[in-house]
Amino acid sequence: MGSSILVIVLFALFAIFMDWLGKKGKKLPPAERRPDPSTTLPPPLPRPWPTRQGSPQGETKERLGFKIPEIKGAPPAPGHVDTGGVYRESGAVLEEQRQRQQEEQAARQRHEAYEQAKRLEEARIRAEEQASYLRAAKLPQGEASGQQPFLPVLTPESAQQAVVLAELLGSPRAHRPGRWQRHRRHD
User: Fold this and answer.
1) How many other β-carbons are positioned within 10 Å of the β-carbon of residue 134?
2) What are φ and ψ of residue 171, in 5° steps?
3) Which of 161, 187, 163 is nearest to 176 (CA)?
4) How many Cα atoms are found within 13 Å in the side-chain-facing hemisphere of 175?
5) What is the distance of C-alpha 115 from the center of its chain?
6) Over 60: is that where the pLDDT of 56 sits?
7) How far, CA to CA in Å, does 182 sit from each of 19, 173, 176, 179, 185?
8) pLDDT for residue 144 is more than 60
9) What are the residues facing 81 on neighbouring strands?
């Protein structure tokens, strides 16, 4: 036992001595300084050509050096070309949108009617099952309807009875948070 402690102490002394020898000859280099970001950033981007307020025709004239003539019978501006590249009259696009909206509305109404019919069918089946249960159980209609109020009627007598039952069935007073007790006990 004594020899094992001696070995551990000698090992610790040897590790401390070697660490001290290792640090004695080495000096840490100074921390590298980060270069100034303003000297390492790329030069600013060149500005685009100045634009003038005016028509697109004037801009193309300046860039191309000549005016592009208008072609008779050509389709109007690109606002009337759909995603497939097909030219459409402005009224045709609106008509297609109106038809699509009507189809969606009709599909929505069919779905709502289906859901309503399904709910009515389920209610009818539920009523049939309830009636067959009443016939099999031979219960009078009033008791089986289950339309008794969920909460009892509150009167002074029922409130007094509720307080008494809460005291009897509730947790002990020693476990309740009170005036002298800061924390509630965990059971």
Assistant:
1) 15
2) -70, 155
3) 187
4) 7
5) 29
6) no
7) 54, 14, 10, 8, 10
8) no
9) 87
